[in-house]
Specification:
Strand 7 and strand 8 form a beta hairpin. This protein has 4 helices and 8 strands; from the N terminus they run ββααβββαβαββ. Helix 3 crosses helix 4. With about 190 residues, the protein is of the alpha+beta class. The protein has an 8-stranded mixed beta sheet, sandwiched between helices.
Length: about 190
């Protein structure tokens, strides 16, 4: 029996939700990205990689995304906009066309946490990736201490798959557990 393993990469397209606009990064977004997200010290408690941790890194992150939008239709990375300001970013990475799977990652500034924006953005991107692009499975992980991220993934419809014990390391050298989630096209 032959299965259709073709996906239709569409690249990053604008997505509007009830409260948010998910859009491509634009030239000039770097300063706002750093100001609103990269300089937020509470974010570093839960993630190990912050591509906008300095003004220079933010400009490079934005420029890299813009270049990839133009050259790679399998590149998916959005600025999260609320009330005309960047409040975070979300993307789908490590896409495997053969297994039709990819990893979603999101960062929302702590000033905007607790309003459901993370789950709203995750849900919208999942609908796009599963419904329009053709992924079969999207997975994500978060530090077990990041209760907000865990709740956002569940609220967006993702299923808890398990805990990887002491799989993350904090900046203080201590280890934390990691929670794994996924969603299937058939869910």
């Amino acid at each position: 029996m032959e299965t259709n393993r073709e996906m239709e990469h569409k690249g990053t397209a604008d997505i509007r939700t009830e409260h948010l606009l998910l859009r491509k990064f634009h030239t000039g977004d770097g300063a706002e990205l750093f100001q609103n997200v990269g300089s937020d010290e509470t974010i570093m408690e839960h993630i190990r990689w912050l591509p906008c941790g300095s003004p220079e890194m933010s400009e490079v992150f934005v420029a890299d995304n813009i270049q990839k939008y133009e050259t790679d239709p399998s590149h998916y990375s959005w600025a999260i906009i609320r009330d005309a300001q960047i409040i975070g970013y979300v993307g789908v990475y490590d896409i495997d066309d053969y297994t039709q799977s990819g990893e979603i990652g999101i960062t929302v500034a702590s000033a905007f946490s607790g309003h459901g924006y993370a789950s709203e953005a995750i849900h919208a991107v999942l609908e796009y990736m599963l419904g329009k692009v053709g992924l079969n499975r999207v997975f994500a992980w978060c530090n077990a201490r990041n209760i907000g991220s865990s709740k956002a993934m569940q609220k967006a419809g993702m299923t808890y798959e398990g805990t990887a014990r002491e799989a993350a390391m904090r900046s203080d050298g201590e280890h934390d557990d990691v929670l794994w989630y996924s969603i299937l096209k058939s869910d």
